[in-house]
Amino acid sequence: MQTENKNQPFVEIVREWNPADYKIRYALFDFDGTVSLIREGWQGIMIPYFTQVLEEVAQEETHEELEDLVRLFVTDLTGKQTIFQCIRLAEEVRKRGGTPLEPIEYKTEYLRRLGIRIHDRKEGLAAGTIDPDDWIVPGSRQFITMLREKGIHCLVASGTDDADVQREAQLLKIDELFDGGVFGARDDLSVNRKESEIREIKAMVIEDLLEKEGIDPSELISFGDGYVEVQLVAERGGLAIGVATNEDTRTGINEWKRGRLIVAGARAIAPDFSQPEELMRLLDYK
């Protein structure tokens, strides 16, 4: 359920911290739902499709029971690469006595269906008939620009396929803002692998920053609407900020996202980036 609490401050502090303990040099952003809204409504494609697949093999469960099951595991895995949800679907098919397709085949069909939904958005952006700011989270362009002006390197890590993230960042005309790079999922890291063997793209990017680049956790802040990036940065000692955007209305808080982000370890929750000066104060910038 998505609601807007007009009495709630723009930034909700969940876990207090001392700004002096952080000297932010890098800002990591999730993409879909945090910066980009091109794929808004994706769950409305995935959940019915996965439910349909399970109905073909289920013997006793009702449509509603299967849909509830799918919704639960789809939302639990949101933020990870799409292949993780497809692996889980294959497991559920097998549990019911069916012979599942390869997870990559489920992913391909899901992306085909999603592509139909978002086709006009991408075509309009490419043709210049749609304003890119109509499909980004409010205030994100201005906020990322402000971070860059303070010398903070910005980058994206997304569970969406790398080629799609790269292209959609270009369509939204925000790719050049991410001087630290734009990183998405790669099938060569997941095809024909067990779930435990798949390298999670967000974990890889964070590990590269902390280990290969020698960045201290106190120099890293993350912004995301997914459990994964918030948990990963929080566990490593970085400053994790949850962005609980209501993608339907483009205003206010999505309460389901908020609750999940708090559990993941978010220090603070914001609805979007529409008050960038307020967000900059989290970094102790006036």
Q: What can you tell me about this protein's structure?
A:
- It contains ten helices and seven strands.
- Helices cover about 45% and strands about 10% of the residues.
- Helix 1 crosses helix 2 (about 65-75) and helix 3 (about 80-95) packs antiparallel against helix 4.
- It is globular, with a radius of gyration of 19 Å.
- The longest helix has 25 residues, at about 105-125.
- The protein has helices at about 45-55, 65-75, 80-95, 105-125, 140-150, 160-170, 200-210, 225-235, 255-265, 275-280; strands spanning about 10-15, 25-30, 155-160, 180-185, 220-225, 240-245, 270.
- The protein folds into two domains: about 10-35 and about 135-280, HAD superfamily/HAD-like (Rossmann fold, 3-Layer(aba) Sandwich), CATH 3.40.50.1000; about 45-125, no CATH class.
- Strands 1-7-6-5-2-3-4 form a seven-stranded mixed beta sheet.
- It is α/β, with parallel strands linked by helices and about 290 residues long.
Poorly predicted ranges? 1-5
Whole-number radius of gyration?
19 Å
CATH topology of the largest domain: Rossmann fold
Largest sheet: 7 strands, mixed
CATH class of the largest domain: Alpha Beta
With strands numbered from the N-terminus, the spatial order across the biggest sheet is: 1-7-6-5-2-3-4
Under the CATH scheme, which architecture of the largest domain would be assigned? 3-Layer(aba) Sandwich
Portion of residues in beta strands equals: 5-15%
* Rough outline: globular
For CATH, the homologous superfamily of the largest domain is named as HAD superfamily/HAD-like
Oligomeric state of shown chains: single chain
What is the H/E string?
EEHHHHHEHEHEHEHEH
- Summed over residues and divided by their number, the pLDDT gives a mean of 91
Terminal CA distance: 35 Å
**What's the total number of strands?**
7
Number of helices: 10
Indicate how many domains the architecture comprises.
Answer: 2
